[in-house]
Design goal:
The protein is an alpha/beta fold. Helices cover 40% and strands 15% of the residues.
């Protein structure tokens, strides 16, 4: 399995505080069957926009530690970016990391309870510039629950939609579960990821969604992420 959204890098956001905690997160993910994780630290005003070079360095250091501890996990660099009107300019100037550092897909976080009025125009501008928006944990965005046509419109226009495994499994509450499963029935889920942060209440688990996803599990947790990361089997 491949986890495209996980806060595994130590000391940069609300994920692991240090390397030891990051290794514990890695062990839990591996025990669950994950073999590749894209590290997606928060990139927003709260965490002061961690520099892509710092993300690359921390990712390389964590991979060294994983090898030293014989943990069979590969970590790739990435970021979860809070949308803002100057996002495209930051991307083009190299201030923001793309998924896998491949310069194509951008994991974007929308406000959970307010409407970013400029989002539609921003996504269009990103696509014109050659980027593909990947909208993080869309089931948590209240705007999409109140205006379901808006999410479908973004999807029809080429945005990819990511849902958290815990939402599909019912571990984020029944409201999230019902809405996530509705998105699944309507064919509006492109990626299932963990959005893992720790080994306690936000675990890096994908298999918990297997029952809900049924025959879609492999496609949404391996095949589609593999295409995005341009990886061969």
């Amino acid at each position: 399995m491949i986890d495209l959204h996980c806060h595994i890098l130590p000391g940069v956001d609300d994920g692991p505080r240090d390397v030891d905690e990051a290794l514990d997160v890695a062990r839990l993910a591996v025990a669950d069957g994950t073999r590749i994780i894209v590290a997606t630290p928060h990139v927003d005003d709260t965490y002061k926009y961690p520099d892509p070079d710092l993300i690359r360095a921390l990712t390389a250091r964590l991979n060294d530690c994983l090898r030293a501890h014989k943990i069979p996990l590969r970590v790739l660099p990435g970021a979860e970016v809070r949308v803002g009107p100057d996002l495209l300019e930051k991307l083009q100037s190299g201030q923001i990391m793309t998924i896998g550092d491949l310069g194509k897909h951008v994991l974007l976080e929308l406000p959970s309870s307010s409407h970013a009025m400029y989002a539609g125009e921003l996504f269009f501008r990103l696509q014109l510039a050659g980027y593909i928006p990947v909208l993080a944990h869309v089931e948590r965005v209240a705007l999409f629950r109140s205006q379901p046509g808006l999410l479908r419109d973004f999807h029809d226009r080429g945005c990819l939609l990511q849902v958290n495994a815990e939402s599909l499994a019912g571990r984020a509450g029944w409201t999230m579960r019902r809405y996530a499963q509705k998105l699944l029935r309507e064919g509006l889920i492109d990626i299932v990821a963990s959005d893992g942060h720790n080994t306690n209440n936000r675990k890096p688990l994908l298999s918990i969604a297997k029952k809900a996803l049924n025959n879609e599990f492999e496609r949404l947790t391996d095949q589609r992420p593999r295409q995005i990361l341009q990886l061969q089997r």
